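re the bet — no i am not wrong, look at it urself. input seq straight from the record:
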Amino acid sequence: MASCSSMVLVAVILLLSTNTRGVFSSYREKEVLSLKKLQWSQRSSKTSFLSQKSRTENGATILEMRHRDCFSGIISDWNQRLQNWLQADRIRVKSIHAQIKILASGKTEAHSQTRIPIASGVNLHTLNYIVPVTVGGRNMTVIVDTGSDLTWVQCQPCKLCYNQPEPIFDPSLSSSYHSIPCKSSACQSLQFATGNSGLCGGDAGTCKYEVSYGDGSYTRGVLGSDRLILGTIPVENFVFGCGRNNRGLFGAASGLMGLGRSDLSLISQTSDVFGGVFSYCLPTTDVGSSGSLILGGDASVCKNSTPFSYTRMVPNPQPVTFYFLNLTGITVGGVATQAPSFGKAGILIDSGTVITRLPPSIYEAVKTEFLKQFSGYPTAPSFSILDTCFNLSSYDEVDVPTVKMQFEGDAELTVDVTGIVYIAKSDASQVCLALASLTFEDEIGIIGNYQQKNTRVIYDTKESKLGFAKESCSFY
């Protein structure tokens, strides 16, 4: 009888404890998620763009990387802002798939190591990451994008430029600036870098460019070259776009840094300096958090807490911009999910896309296993592209099953617990699985930046390999 009473008492204690923390642990691997820590905070102050730092260490250039959220003040309606970000993310994914189809068909439309601080870009009004650079003696803050090739900044004279807190670059004030001629190899490289060939018009000494991002965003201007400084490392005659007509979801950044694979990308142009190697550790959206973009050197300069595991970059002649990998599996809470697309369809990794997109069969397998393990919590309506949501407002913290992605060669990306769920409402009444399904099985999957947080991702373009390691992201 006493034994029975004890069992009842234990059951009551467990039931009561779920007010602050879930006790649904039918899975082997889990992590504790503090809901208060993860909630989007209401910003009350701004951080100066130019306060981002850089340094050189063991032959590497290290730039401080921040999320753009660190640079805006109070945002009154975070729910609507998050909706807008995910809608923009949906459009970006469509744009990437459209670009893949165009370039894969062969058709085009005519129209040393340095550590750079990397920051989240929420406060520049997009979920992207930003770093500081210097062009022609002017300090600037630019978006980091592995899914783009052409680096560009807003330039005077401006026909149409969006507002930015930093002075707009005026090439006439830079003694090292030069225009790129129309028949130059750089101008001809635009076709592969942007999908649009360079335009000459009536001026053979000028190469006009146009980049459209598929969501109505675009940049138009002329190609130029100038002295680029990354940290303390100078890069002479760096070719970039001088944007005089720019519109879209670039927030308040001065421009964009293209880290893709074509000849015009920053990685290709600086291969003699940095050896075609770069890595980043993307910070969270917390106020004051920072990560880093490292150019050059080797893995020894990184502050990873686990060893790197590498996978090969899948050869893909068209399009050359993106970094493709072979996804072979995903485990949820230590349980391997089963889907016919594993090992058959390529997936690209992208710093500009926010939420990871998976082929329908893989997404359904992951979602089903997640729901099986994360059971017992009240559900909530879907949020934008996220269809698996919960009401966790009664909990201070919950146990979340781990999510790990496996790649060819036994490489593994362990998704940080803050990248597994997405808090849509600040009171945690709408917390969603931070993954989304593609529409069709043959569409290319995309690993977004939300799932790359607190992970050191290293790209070795010379050896055509990419590695993952856990790291608590910080510039210092």
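see?? Residues 6-19, 42-50, 122-127 have pLDDT under 50 and may be disordered. told u. also The helical segments are 2-17, 35-38, 78-104, 185-188, 190-194, 266-269, 271-274, 360-373. so pay up
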